[in-house]
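Page 37, continued from 36.
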């Protein structure tokens, strides 16, 4: 599905952040992932911060862009893989975290180029940078857990 409006882009972004938070919160009881507890907590916390920033940006209503048509963003290009089950292995978790980070970084970067409002553009660039920082920190943490 093409994301053709500011509202559609915002909803897509908020839904992806919420999807990741819900998936990772569902893994809390997996004994095989106990060593990832702090890492998962940090990713969940960052996801919640991102959702608040997106909601605030949407609510503050950058009204002039709401009806401005946007082209070139297809949701299928950025949709996340099916969420893993709560009994996944640590390898599957690492793969899931890498894939979701890569897709969200690409989405936020591409969306920033399409949104015709400087403030919203800055928000999406900030979200891409946050996700990149989190991916790098996650990679370092995962290397320490191996």
């Amino acid at each position: 599905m093409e994301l053709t409006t500011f509202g559609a882009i915002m909803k897509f972004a908020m839904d992806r952040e919420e999807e990741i938070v819900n998936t990772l919160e569902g893994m809390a009881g997996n004994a095989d992932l106990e060593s990832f507890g702090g890492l998962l907590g940090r990713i969940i916390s960052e996801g919640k911060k991102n959702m608040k920033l997106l909601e605030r940006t949407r609510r503050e209503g950058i009204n002039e862009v709401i009806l401005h048509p946007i082209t070139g963003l297809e949701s299928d290009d950025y949709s996340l893989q099916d969420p893993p089950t709560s009994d996944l292995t640590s390898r599957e978790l690492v793969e899931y975290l890498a894939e979701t980070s890569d897709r969200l970084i690409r989405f936020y970067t591409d969306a920033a180029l399409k949104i015709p409002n400087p403030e919203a553009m800055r928000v999406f660039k900030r979200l891409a940078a946050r996700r990149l920082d989190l991916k790098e920190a996650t990679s370092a943490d995962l290397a320490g857990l191996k």
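The mean pLDDT is 85. Flag for discussion at group meeting. The two ends are 39 Å apart (CA to CA).
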